[in-house]
Amino acid sequence: MNDQLTAIYTELLLMKEELQSRLFEYSCFQVSTSPQAAINQKQKATLIYHIKEELQDVLLALSKIENGTFGYCEETGAPIPLAKLAVLPTARTANDFLYSVQFEKKTLPIWKSTDIEYGQALYE
User: Fold this and answer.
1) Phi, psi angles (nearest 5°) of residue 79
2) By its UniProt entry, which Gene3D superfamilies does this protein fall under?
């Protein structure tokens, strides 16, 4: 394993540890019957879902490194440059990097403090 791949592997191990910690933290919430608690539980359930998805991606990347198939596009079989994988180590296809370009072009709405929906937008 070369230095760049070792660095990616180490980063994935750290990601795994952090995601498992977050999953445990969000899984240990108290059950309450208040309406606000119900909203919080839905938000936590959504967070847990996304954390589990990311954790699965990390575990898959780690297993690919261990069995020697890391760095190859799942669609075409073409190698993916390690420089790109260092940025997005859970990428499974070469097309995964195209999405980051699309996300960078998007902007968030600019809210003025005088907008009526400003406060609501911050908490939705």
Assistant:
1) -70, 145
2) DksA, coiled-coil domain
